[in-house]
Amino acid sequence: xxxxxxxxxxxAEVDSLVCFLTRDTWPFHVSATxxxxxxxxxxxxxxxDSDETRTFWITVHGEAVGLIRLMDLGDGTPLFDLRIASDxxxxxxxxxxxxxxxxxxxxxxPDAERMEGTTRQDNVAMRRTFEKGGYVKEAHHRDAWPGAGxxxxxxxxxxxxxxxxxxxxxxxxxxxxxxx
Length: 180
Description:
Layout: E1 4-8, H1 14-22, H2 36-44, E2 54-60, E3 63-71, E4 79-84, H3 93-108, E5 114-120, H4 124-132, E6 136-146, E7 152-161, H5 162-167
Antiparallel strand pairs: 1-2, 2-3, 3-4, 5-7, 6-7
Helix pairs in contact: 1-2
């Protein structure tokens, strides 16, 4: 997809951020919809930009089509939230955004030894995005993700190691390490 770019969010764009997050649904997030007041409160609390967080717009020819939020930048394992607008999903933006983000983190944060993300078990697109990006499944938590109406979903955690990213290799998780 031509014209795909990443641009850091600045506080003066909070109204654009509110519009972006409230005009769409986010079916694989804890809250599928968010309200204007909620986003304003998050922004005021530094959820999108602080010493520990950075947020980036994903744009196509200047139009905001997605959002990436980095968290826990002060420790060696940043986490992220990736959102693609519904009318742009299924076009290959997720894997490209994750590749950009991984490169950004390991380039900008020399103390970051790994990067993690978590999704619901039924979010097949994100799970494929993790795998395409060299991320390895490291955790599967049963009934750990709260959903609408009290429903619970399994939560699946993925991570990439700096050394794997740097060498283009994938170190698998050892699922058979228990000697009981």
